[in-house]
Amino acid sequence: MTIKKNIAKINKQLAGSAARLIAVTKTKPIEDLQEAYQADCKIFGENRVQEMVNKWKALPKDIEWHLIGHLQGNKVKEIVPFVSLIHSVDSMKLLKQIDFQAAKINRTVNCLLQIYIAQEDTKFGLSEEEAIEIIESEDLKSLHNIKIVGLMGMATFTENFPQVRREFKKLKTFFEVLKTVSEHRQIPNVELKEISMGMSGDYLIAIEEGSTLVRIGSFIFGNRYIT
Ligand SMILES: *Cc1c(COP(=O)(O)O)cnc(C)c1O
Predict the structure, then answer these.
(1) What digits encode the pLDDT tens for the residues 130-152?
(2) 69 C-alpha vs ligand 1 centroid, how far in Å?
(3) Fewest beta carbons less than 10 Å away: which of 29, 82, 174, 187?
């Protein structure tokens, strides 16, 4: 019952904002996902391909599956048939691999570019310059089976909330810049509308700074003992 209660609490906090909740279900058993589903939470985020595939097979088909963790090119094929949004695109090479697999089954896969905003060097992601390079590249125009719909970022893991807020603001500002660039250039497979930012420890700040997708795991399901 606590899962339902936690989801209800978050939904209340999200009401009136632009943000939707992604329940981050990595490492959690199917029963936990079923409880969330019964609370009408039907967007799940996973960071490992095999785990996401297994859970997708086991659960109702009206669930949206979001891949939020680093994606290896050789795993793309397994998720392309059903994934709703890939948050963690961090190279042109990966975009091409997603496009290649999606074209084979006639799907268009929505993607976010993961931008590096934290002060830690353990996190994946693109610099702002690298993201602009992708958006402006000629190659992008030939990828008809992917669509870039926004940006994702992870703030530094710290209690220093002013710093976290600065990092979210930076992502939002960059989002606006990139949106202007892409609209000016009229790139058909770029339509920036999502900003995926905010986790259990910082989602209230993220909402204030313009997040449209918050990715919340431990606050809903309890601590994970493995990541
Ligand atoms: C695990 C994870 C989350 C959720 O983290 P919590 O702190 O448990 O809410 C969000 N985003 C990404 C990319 C993650 O890997």
Answers:
(1) 999 999 999 999 999 999 999 99
(2) 9
(3) 29
